[in-house]
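2024-03-11 09:14:02 INFO receiving multi-entity request
2024-03-11 09:14:02 INFO entity count = four
2024-03-11 09:14:03 INFO echoing inputs for audit
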Amino acid sequence: MKASGHEPIGAARPLAESVGWLLNEAARELTLRVEEALGDHDLRWRDYGVLVVLEAAGPLSQQEIGRRLAVDRSTMVHIIDELERRGLVARGRDRADRRAYAIELTDPGRTLLSEVLHPLTAQAHDRVIGRLGEEDRAHLIRILAQLAAGG
Amino acid sequence: MKASGHEPIGAARPLAESVGWLLNEAARELTLRVEEALGDHDLRWRDYGVLVVLEAAGPLSQQEIGRRLAVDRSTMVHIIDELERRGLVARGRDRADRRAYAIELTDPGRTLLSEVLHPLTAQAHDRVIGRLGEEDRAHLIRILAQLAAGG
DNA sequence: TATTGTTATACTCTATAACTATA
DNA sequence: TATAGTTATAGAGTATAACAATA
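2024-03-11 09:21:47 INFO inference complete, emitting structure
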């Protein structure tokens, strides 16, 4: 370990200088703000994620939505149950595979998304990353995308 | 809303382009890698956080540690219980306030941190942010610090 | 009165395993 | 035999509220 050619990695650093820590702090705060905003409409971060995925990709099976959001299919059942109960999504049938649903956005779901939820979450985002200059913001997105791509 | 002077914030964007999403993805992956590494020593992200805070700040009360890690004091009890049981921290008494403990790193705790845990977590970090060039890495840290400072 | 640590408790979130209907 | 959805259940993690000792 000592011969790894790196800076002294065992050195005592304040937590506030660790990338991992900072990354988690930033993510937590942003998630918190977004959930605050969504809370007015009794929605969670996850619910919004489902709606956004459907908006971008079109009808998907529950399992496929779960795969994209890293949520187990048994957990997806409850999430879709609730969104369906509120009329934001509908459980259509996949004609090619009758085991699977084709979960789709309803018109009210699509409208809520574009007229209320997107603006709200964008505002929440801005309250956090608005602290950054335009250039830093673009930089941040590019770097994060690079990290995500490597996963 | 329409007259806010912004880009069309209601536009359908793939989730993968949202800062919030990317931030959470990056944080989750990094945390996962770090926990993988710590798991070999039966420690969690939180436990490591406690040790690092103590290493950087010296003896602190349970509540103060919790405040810095955003953990409730009732939850801190269990975390410190376990770390104490394993001899990594000790519950010293705060002479100025006999209600509070002065939680301190033991010598084995300090040694484990510098000889094992710091190197392990640094390696885990590197496996994630090593994908970035030196310049981007510095940039990322600076930007995240800026975000954190604004909180 | 307020605060530290503690305990018991309850709640949220999530995954596991077993089932059904289809494939 | 394998897979989508479902259900019941169990586990982890956490916070809330009340209590004792001390401030």
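2024-03-11 09:21:48 INFO post-check: Chain B touches chain A through 59 residues (CB under 8 Å).
2024-03-11 09:21:48 INFO post-check: Strands of chain B lie at 89-93, 101-105.
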